Amino acid sequence: MRFMADADRQFDAHNYPATTSELIEAYGETKLDMQNGTETLGDALGRLAEETHEDSESAKLAARSAVSEKAIGRKGYSDRDAPTVGEARDDLSF
To answer: Which pTM does this prediction carry?
Structure first.
């Protein structure tokens, strides 16, 4: 995910184990530019319970799981759903 590139680099350079609070203190101001707005890494991690991350992959997964709806495109959208009543679509499948 491109919006997490800066956070990923920071997590990779961090010394582990590290708690959620330590990561927020160190990188909480990192800005995440998402499809529908921005938030900070601290905002995302602040939604989680305190835990100890053993490595950068654990920290990255936690951060990705906690970003807000701003990270998704159109909420509830799927181009794989059947058209609804009154909706016209010209789907092209490969």
So the answer is: 0.74
